[in-house]
Amino acid sequence: MEGVMVMLLLAAAAVLLLLLPLLLPPLPPPPSLLLLVPVVLLLALLSLAFLPNRDVVVYGQQPAADQFFFRQ
């Protein structure tokens, strides 16, 4: 019974997403600076994902003596 309710809820959401743009008046475009927000978020996530951390540990090598102390 729970799965049926979830499917009905998803179907209702899909119907609303199809019908609401037809019923509501068109909205003005957002400010152009606001359009850069998704691009900045994407670049931040990509840099976090692919840029190496400066404290990378290479397995199989002995750590240097200065790696045991906190950097300031």
TrEMBL record:
Q: Could you tell me the superkingdom of the organism this chain comes from?
A: Eukaryota
Keywords from UniProt, A to Z, are: Cytoplasm, Developmental protein, Endoplasmic reticulum, Membrane, Nucleus, Transmembrane, Transmembrane helix
**Which ranges does the record mark as transmembrane?**
33-51
Q: Which compartments is it annotated to reside in?
A: Cytoplasm; Endoplasmic reticulum; Membrane; Nucleus
Query: Could you tell me the Gene Ontology terms of the biological process aspect for this record?
Result: positive regulation of organ growth; response to hormone
- Record keyword Nucleotidyltransferase present: no
**How does the record classify its membrane topology?**
Multi-pass membrane protein
GO cellular component terms, semicolon-separated: endoplasmic reticulum; membrane; nucleus
The answer on whether this UniProt entry bears the keyword Transmembrane reads yes
Chief subcellular location equals cytoplasm
Which InterPro entries does UniProt cross-reference here? ARGOS/ARL/OSR1
Give the family, as the similarity comment puts it.
Answer: Belongs to the plant organ size related (OSR) protein family.
Protein known as: Os01g0955950 protein
Could you read off the lineage of the organism from its UniProt record? Eukaryota, Viridiplantae, Streptophyta, Embryophyta, Tracheophyta
